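Table S2 (text version). Query chain:
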Amino acid sequence: KRHPQFYPFEILDFVLGSGGFRSRIFQEVRTNRGLAYSTGSFYRARKEHGLFGAYAFTKSESSGRVLSLIEEIVRDVVDNPLPSEELEAAKRSILNSFLFSFTGADQIALQQLMVEYNDLPGDFLSAYRGRIESIRVDEIRNVAGLHLATEKRVILIVGNSAVYQDLSATFKTIRKIEASHD
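Corresponding structure-token output:
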């Protein structure tokens, strides 16, 4: 959260999948293709690192198509600039939801506690809006290229043997890990 790339990555995650119905993953995987009941992404920024994940809950026979589709969506934000309308809509949504983090004394106290816990600057909360508002299209693309590169990805698929057989035919570097029954 202390890194300058935190803000553009917040927006990138929103556009990809945490933005709900408007996100690219939800729109393409669930709405347009009907391949998953639940799908999206998440970004967890911590003191010294961040974690990004994209997910889909789908039936076994759709796993390969869904995985390929999510990879295609991620590749698109790496390779192409976001349309400015999409960037502005994401900023508005993020900032509107940010306001709802301060509707009660308990929420205000929790937000301030998280600032202290994460060793964030004292102005983190008051500067958040301005920093989100100032993000440009090129910053989103830069962050996507740095952090969503294919060689950095780890893909976890939980499924049955049929899923493994289907996926291993398409994705050559897949490795099966058997569950322990201890």
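Notes on Table S2: The chain has a mean pLDDT of 91. The chain has eight helices and two strands.
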